[in-house]
Each structure stands twice: as C-alpha cells, then as structure tokens.
Write a sequence for this structure.
C-alpha cells in the first residue's frame, strides 16, 4: 500500500503534468459590459475559445503516444549560449531616460527588457525545474543567461499567468529580497493574493485592457488565449494575459504563453486607439513564444507553433520579433532545438526577412532603435 507521502506525491505529479500541458485602463472605443465576458462564475475564459483544460484521458493519450513514438527526439544542436554583456546591461540600467531600449534573453519566457528608464523582468524563472517539487518535473537544460546576482536592480516584474514555468515561487521570493528594495510586481487578476501569501506586497493586479504607469512606461494587460492553474482544483481561477509595455523610446509586447487567436489584431487596434496613433501603428518589438507546440491536436488551443507565431508578429504590426519560450525546458513532443528551424521555414513561407523575426542566444542582448528623442529624466515609480 502506498504511503500518504507517496499518494500526495502522485497527486502533485498529476497536477504538474496538467500544468506542463499548458506550458505544454480600458479603451474608449470599446464599450465594456458591466461584467466583462471573460469573467465567469468561479473563474475566467478566453475571448475567442471556450477552453476546457485538458483532462486526464487526453493527458494520458498524449504521454502514451509520445512514449510509443520515442518523442521528443534528441536535439541535434545545443541551445545557443552567449556570455552576457554585463558592462552594457549595467551601464544601461543606470542611464535613466538616456537608456538604450534593449532586450536580453535569460531563458524560456524570462527576459530583461530595458526601456523608458526601467529594468523590467518578464515571467522570471531561475530555478532548476519548472515544478513545485525539486525532484520531478521539467529540468532546466541550460543555465539562465543572467543569474539573479548578475541582474541589475529590477524595477518591475510582469507575470503573464501562474503556470510553473512562468510563475516560479523561488524566483519571485528572491527578487522580492533584491538589494535596494523589491520590484513592483504587475500581475493578472487573482495573483496579488498568491504573492501576499509569500509576504510580497508590492504588487498590482489588473484585468484585460487595464493599465498601470510606472515612471514613463505604461503597462497594459492584454487578452491572450491560454488558461491558468497550478493544480487540479484551481483551473481558470486566476486570469492570464500578455503585456503591452509602452514607453516613449520603445513599445514592446510580451505575449507570455498563448495560442493563436484574433486577440492580437485586437491588441494592435486597441493600443493604437489608446495612444492616439494611426491604426497602422504597431510595436517596435514583440517577444513571442515559439516552443512547446507538439502534438497539435493537444497543444493548438493553448500554444502557438512557429507559423502561428509569425502570424501574431504580423497581426501586432511588430517591426521585429524575438522568439522565446523554447530551448530551456523539454515540455512537449518537438525536439528542444526544433522551434528555430520551424521558425525559419515560417518566415520563408510568409516572405519575412530573417531579421524581422529571429531568436537570441541565451544571454544575448538585442538593442532596439529608439522610437523618439529621449527626454532628460530619471523618473521611476
């Protein structure tokens, strides 16, 4: 007979596999109902798909098929790694509004975005596993491009949703203890209480289309098609979303984790109207997931493949995009090195130049052309 500890471990493992499957201010032009349609009794829903998180039968079918077919296949190429340009990153971090807009890929969906005089961290995970347990779950295949000790002082952390590979307990606790004071955590509805239970109180939660300004940067939570849940009893209980980060020097979009939907065309129109710019305006850069997409019968409702990621790039009107959410954890059936290969094929199919949508090495920094003259200011929250 199994011990109570072992039975609890099995229940946690099932919850973890379910989570891996997933890893696996309002605009004036939109008349919002009194209760937004994505608010439901006991939770939330997507705009364009009534999503039911995968059940045990579908999960077992997926894992059985993968085992039978020997998936994922071993990688032919290691995830590219580059020593971080710490001199630039730290000098830039203290430059105020003279900051060069830049994005550094730390790994998976974790990036350091430097814009508008702020150092912003997206979905930080620095742990060895994307898991609630230290001995089971997806194991990190490449070290973070910047360690927690190498980070500049982080002003803002944006969280897209609560799956274990995007909201990591140890990482947010460590960031809250950073020298110089905790960053501000911006989170979707329902996650402020989760942070408070960890004594992280410097947090603001937002609904879709709501925004919060930090210094010169407006952070807007946007719809994306996904779901939430850290176990079997809290699915859809907290909100999820992408982040439009709108600074004078760069407009950057972080998609978090998402399937393809009409939401991205909506985002482009909504942000353009919000900013009072022409409808053709788009983002200077977009951070779009390109990994964790096979098999499509299981992943399509929750994760884009590289071809769909390119369509998101086009829908957003992004000048350039960077593929994230790959190369760090083995989560689904494609090889860990397959996403950039499929992205290159998708670029060709859509007639895009290589530089329009590319990937970075872990630790690499991409400097972005500033969109407007910089202002001599060091305003922060």
């Amino acid at each position: 007979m199994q011990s109570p500890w072992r039975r609890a471990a099995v229940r946690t493992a099932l919850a973890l596999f379910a989570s891996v499957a997933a890893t696996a201010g309002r605009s004036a032009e939109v008349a919002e109902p009194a209760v937004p349609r994505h608010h439901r009794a006991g939770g939330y829903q997507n705009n364009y798909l009534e999503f039911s998180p995968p059940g045990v039968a579908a999960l077992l079918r997926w894992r059985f098929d993968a085992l039978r077919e020997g998936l994922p296949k071993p990688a032919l190429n290691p995830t590219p790694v580059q020593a971080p340009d710490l001199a630039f990153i730290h000098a830039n971090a203290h430059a105020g509004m003279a900051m060069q807009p830049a994005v550094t890929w730390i790994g998976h969906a974790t990036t350091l975005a430097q814009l508008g005089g702020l150092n912003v961290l997206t979905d930080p995970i620095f742990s060895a596993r994307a898991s609630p347990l230290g001995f089971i779950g997806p194991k990190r295949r490449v070290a973070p491009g910047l360690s927690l000790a190498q980070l500049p002082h982080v002003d803002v952390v944006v969280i897209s949703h609560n799956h274990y590979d995007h909201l990591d307990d140890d990482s947010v606790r460590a960031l809250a203890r950073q020298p110089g004071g905790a960053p501000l955590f911006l989170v979707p509805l329902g996650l402020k209480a989760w942070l408070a239970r960890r004594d992280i109180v410097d947090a603001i939660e937002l609904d879709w289309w709501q925004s919060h300004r930090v210094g010169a940067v407006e952070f807007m939570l946007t719809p994306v098609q996904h779901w939430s849940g850290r176990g079997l009893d809290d699915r859809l209980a907290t909100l999820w979303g992408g982040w439009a980060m709108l600074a004078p020097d760069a407009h950057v979009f972080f998609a978090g984790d998402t399937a393809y939907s009409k939401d991205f065309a909506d985002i482009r129109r909504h942000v353009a109207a919000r900013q009072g710019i022409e409808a053709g305006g788009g983002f200077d850069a977009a951070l779009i997931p390109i990994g964790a997409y096979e098999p499509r019968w299981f992943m399509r409702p929750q994760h884009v493949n590289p071809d769909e990621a390119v369509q998101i790039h086009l829908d957003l009107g992004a000048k350039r995009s960077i593929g994230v959410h790959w190369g760090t954890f083995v989560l689904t059936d494609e090889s860990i090195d397959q996403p950039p290969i499929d992205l290159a094929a998708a670029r060709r199919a859509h007639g895009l130049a290589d530089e329009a949508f590319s990937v970075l090495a872990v630790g690499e920094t991409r400097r972005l052309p500033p969109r407007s003259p910089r202002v001599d200011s060091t305003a922060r929250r």
